[in-house]
Structures
1.
Amino acid sequence: MIARFYLDENVKEFLVAALIAIGFDTVSTSQMGRKGASDFMQLLFAAQTGRVVITHDSKDFQQLHGAWLAWSAAWGAAIAAQHPGILIIEQGSGQRGGLPVTQMVANLQAFAALPGPSSNLIFAWNAIVGLREVPPLVR
Amino acid sequence: MAVTKAATERKPAEADAPNVTIALDPIRPGVERARLVEYGIPVWALIGDMGRGEGEMDDVEIARVASDYMIPEEAARAAVAYYREHRHAIDAFLDSNYVVGG
């Protein structure tokens, strides 16, 4: 699986250095000068640079992924228009906080070790269910 | 950083955080999507990382989150102050920001 990551602006910046230290090619929206850009432009940038998007924003990216699949299929561009993948790391609901950097690094290592391509797929991780592929929101 | 200069822009606890501005995001409307202008980070992301239980937003936790996000502690404190003013909206966003169908 692809091991090049693009960290959304809601993800800890410190994770960039932690991932690079263990060999993952990782950049952030901050480093790319793309803070404040819309989510669809962030996904487009990730697709054009061959990077998996790492985000905490499940609401927007699940919808965006569904739109990407539906529109590219409707326009006959399903093969050409592939994004390298999206991984949503849920921050935890209720009163729980987010994950420490070490746990996030471990999750991304597990993600990178998954067999098969991540192209045009969306994955999620949380403390209860773990890492899994998520069906697109297309209906 | 594409944030609005709307009337809602403010410098929370200005005396303590003179270099921090929190403003609505023109692309993602709502106080629950407000962000730290100078750092481009949404308030909800910092709050979601801290945990929202009683006593969780103490100095140690604020310092940890500031370090993880590589922002000054005053910025993390400003985010907490903003959260306390808009707790209901931000809590609702965080509680609904989970993966559907997975």
Note: Chain A has a mean pLDDT of 89.
2.
Amino acid sequence: MQRIVIPGEKLVDSQIRIENTISDKNGTYACVIGYYDDERKSLIPLEGLWQPRQGDNIIGVVEEDKGNMYLVNLNAPYKGLILAKFIETELNAGDFITATVKNLEKGGTVILLRPQRLAGGKLISVSPSRIPRIIGKGNSMLNQITTGTGTKIVIGLNGIIWLNGGKMDLATSTILRIEEEAHTTGLTDRIQKMLSGNEMK
Amino acid sequence: MGGGEKPELIVNGKRLDGRAMDELRSIKIEVGTIRNAVGSAYIEWGNNKIVAGVYGPKEALPKHVSNPEKAIIKCRYAMSPFSSLEEHGRSGPNRRSIEISKVTKEVFENVVLLENFPGSEIDIYVDVLQADGGTRAAGITAAAVALAASGIPMSDVPFSVSIGKVGEELILDLNKIEDNYSDADMPMAISPRTGELLLLQMDGNLTKDEISKGVSMAQKAGEVITKLQKDALKASYEKIMEKYTK
């Protein structure tokens, strides 16, 4: 059974470790609004922010070239930072890049590794909590959009998605629809219909 | 507050607006009123109409106010110039609104998991469009819903309500005229999960027994308010779900 829970709602009577929860000796409680699965004991947030973790792939925009380092806007409370000595290519302010998170430093700076420039295309931003649904199980949803529209898509876990080529408008509206309906069942079928263009209006 | 002749607040065992002593005014909560906010809520609590919006977490500015260990909360409560019969908001923040901003901020500092966002700030705006007594309580209740809707991790969704005293009777959820002429007035905010008091202020005099009776009265009313907050939060998602499960 899946149900929507709100902060402070009791999930189980025992003290167990689930992500996005807090627990005391009487039980475990949700601390975000989310979708709770009783059997799998998992709480998937419906809203939320990106929490940087080592190895996360992100997309950002280079904001400033400081000579020995680059500052990257991640659309988050954190600022990205790339040390110039670790990279060979030069970046310019305004470049779209994808990179991997090395670590989060005190004071809210995210150190980034292995930046790659994304040439052309456009960026859209979605709620970071919907990113897993846009990717789908084993990339299923993402593959569906890519084959349906012919668009090249790169997804950043911070909620920024880069699109280029193909039917870009269709890909954009598909992604925005997944964002809105992420918590509903039968979404894959509806997206398939939307992409093949014979959805009942 | 108030002056002149003190009106009779309890007539034939009923209050002026026909409520029983421990009866709340009607409450309606909506989620997602402000599109640009990360989380927002609108509350109609009797004749109070209040909008609350939450922005952030974002980089804390100016830099010297930020805390490298945890997030900081900034709160602004404001009454619109047209919100009540008295004058409000003629020249920015006044003594009263600065006080209410501070106590609202302190309520949420105790429930939001601030350690998750070091060096950032969370902005809470509470704007009173129409006032009829008990706006700080209604504002905190709305801001709690807005915060929960924004997805910022918090240990609980607090609620707030006031109790007061007229003669020998304790009354729940004071409106404007009761607020002005009652013998005592005690707004409080409570975390329903633990029962902790997050805000407790008092005007006038109450005995020890009356305070503990008042707190339990507020906790009982909280069951109703908490349910309304919960339903409002779930409603927006269930609407989209229902569309496709049929």
Note: Residues 10-245 of chain B form a domain with the Ribosomal Protein S5; domain 2 fold (CATH 3.30.230.70).
